[in-house]
Every structure is written in C-alpha cells, then in structure tokens.
Amino acid sequence: MVIDYVTDRCYTKSVRFSDRCFTALAKIFIEVANDYPCDITAVLTLTMLNVGSPRMHIHELALRLMVVLCKGHLIDTQPTTATTGSTEQLAQPVTDDVAYILSLASSYSKSQMLLSEYMARRRPDLTIAMFSEVTTRVLTATSSCRSSLLMILLPWVYNIELIDSSLPKSNGNDNNYYDNGHAFLKGSGWGSVQATELILNNLFYLTVT
C-alpha cells in the first residue's frame, strides 16, 4: 500500500526526504481525514514524532494534523471512568483536546513528551497498539528518530502493569488504570499476561539488537 510505503520512508530516509514524505501524508489526512482509511496508531506515532521536529513548519503541520485526528478519529470512542455504583462516559469535550494541542505551540521544546503523555491518558486503550507500532519502527528508524520514538513510548509504558502468571490472581481491579481515583479503562491490555509478554519480549529484543 502506498501509504505504508511513504510512512516507512518517514523513518528510514534523510531528514529532507522524510520531511517531504510527512508533508505529503499530512496534507492528505488533513484534507480527507474522515474518509481516508488509515492505521490510526501508525499515523498517531508519526504525527507525535514530527511534533518534536526542530523545523518549525513541520512542527506546526504535525500539530494541525493532530487536531484533525482528534476530531475525526481519536475521540470517537472514549474510555470509561468508574463512579460509585455506575460507569459513565468521560465528559471532556473534543474542544478541550484541541485547545490543549494548540497550546503546545507555545511550549515547543517539551511539546512531544507532553503530547504523548496527554494521549496516553486520554486513549489508554491504544496502549498495546502504540507499543507495538513504536517498537517496530525503532528497529528500522534512523538514529535521529530512535531517541524520539523511545521518548514517545515512555508514557504509554506507564499504562502497563507487569503480571506474573504463576501468582494467584488478585480480587482487586487489576485491569483498571487509575488517576486521582478514576479508572480509565477496564479489560485486557495492561495488567495482563498479554501485555507483560509484549513489553518484556520487545524490550529484550531491542536491547540485544
């Protein structure tokens, strides 16, 4: 697929070439974000990578694309938060997400990490997919991209609790992600054997390679 080919070149080619590839992809997604089929984790990872670009026009284009992704894809399905006796939909409106993303333009040096932390909290259900995407890209990315990819990955790793399958299961809500007493997600993904194996196997492979 052409999109996959161009996306791969954003990680493996020279800065000038990868900037051109990202610019082409960003313009496509900005124009037809809701109609163009895409792997959202792949686009999200590439966008966050370019938010940290030292070239201002690429940084600003990545922020624009991030706004479009939030409106068209990322906030379609919200994680749920547990309340006393019930489960309700998170009420934070899309406009708050857009406002936060736009505010990153004024905190340029920290924008990449701040955005990754924000999205890891807003969409923890993407944690496993994001971890797989980033670790896959690290293997073939240029040296200049690798450090940024690992920086992007770090906030998502915090969403995962390592589990020893040989130990008896706890009666608590091990699969919930808590922040100030609120559970952001219930179900498998982290706090599970699947997540533990994914983390350990991929980190071990990256270490030895």
Describe what this molecule looks like in 3D.
The chain has one domain. The radius of gyration is 18 Å and the shape is globular. The strands form 2 sheets. A two-stranded antiparallel sheet has the order 1-2. The chain has a two-stranded antiparallel sheet with strand order 3-4. The longest helix has 19 residues, at 56-74. The protein has 209 residues and is mainly alpha-helical. The protein has helices spanning 2-12, 15-32, 40-51, 56-74, 94-103, 111-122, 127-140, 143-157, 193-208, and strands at residues 80-83, 86-89, 178-179, 182-183. It has 9 helices and 4 strands, in the order ααααββααααββα. Helix content is 61%, strand content 6%. The two termini are 28 Å apart. Helix 1 packs antiparallel against helix 2, helix 3 packs antiparallel against helix 6 (111-122) and helix 4 (56-74) runs antiparallel to helix 5 (94-103). Residues 77-91 and 180-189 have low confidence and may be disordered.
